[in-house]
Amino acid sequence: MFGRSAQRGALVGKGADGSESDVIIRAQDVVKVYDTGSSKVEALRGVSFEVQRGEMVAVMGPSGCGKTTLLNCLSGLDSVTSGEIWLEGQDLATMSDKKRTNYRAQRMGFVFQVYNLLPVLSAVENVELPLLLGGMRTGPARQRALDALETVGLREWAGHRPAELSGGQRQRVTIARSLVNNPAIIWADEPTGALDSKSASDIMALMRTLNEQKSLTIVCVTHDPGVGQQCHRIVRMSDGQIVGEEQIVPSAQRELTTAIVS
Amino acid sequence: MDKLFGISMNTWLVVMLILLAVCLVTVAWIWLRHRVIFKLGVRNIPRRKSQTALIVIGLMLATLIISAALGTGDTLTHWIGGSVYKQFGPVDEVVVHTSGDAKPSAGAALSVRIPESQLQYVRDQTKNDPNVDGVGGLLAAQSPVLNMGQVDLAKLDLTSPAAFEQIIKTAKQSEPVVNVAGIDEQSLKDLGGLKTKDGKPVTIADMGSNGVVLTSDAADQLQAVKGDILLITLNNQPHAVKVVGIADNTVLAGAIQNTGQKLEGMSMPLANLQAMMGAPGQISAIAISNKGDSRAGVKLTDEIVNAHKSAFLTQELGIVPLKQDAVKQADQIAQGMVAFFIIFGLFSIAVGILLIVLIFTMLAAERRSEMGMARAVGAQRRQLIQQFIAEGTGYALIAGLVGALLGALAAGLISGFMGLLFAGSLDVTPHVTLRSIVIAYCLGTVITFIAVALSSWRVSRLNVVAAVRDIPDSYNPHKNKRQLMWGVLMVIGGAILTALGHNSHQAFSFYTGMSLIPLGIAAILTYFGLKPRLVLTLAGLYLLALWLLPESVADKLWGKTNGNIEMFFLSGIFLVAAATLIIVQNLRALLALTQRLGGAMRGKIASIRMAVAYPGATPGRTGMTIAMFSLIVFSLVMVATLVTNFSKLFLGTEATAGWTIRVDVPQDNPVANFEQALKQRGIDVAPIQAIGTTAQPGAFSTQFRNPNGAWKPGLVTGADASFLDNSKIEFQARANGYDSDQAIINALKSDPNVAIIDASAIPQGGGGFGGGNDNYQLEGITANTKTFAAPTIDVISPEIQTPRKVKIIGVIDQKITSMFGLYVNDAGLKQIFPSNAPAAMHYYVKVAPGTDTKAYTLSIKHALLPNGAQAVDIKQELKDAQKQSSSFLYILEGFMGLGLIVGIAAVGVVAFRAVIERRQSIGMLRALGFQRSMVQESFVIESAVIVLLGVLSGAVLGIALAYILLTSNSFTNGEKVTVTYPWVQIVLLMAVAVVAALLMSWLPARQASRVHPAEALRYE
Question: pTM score, two decimals?
Answer without folding.
Answer: 0.74
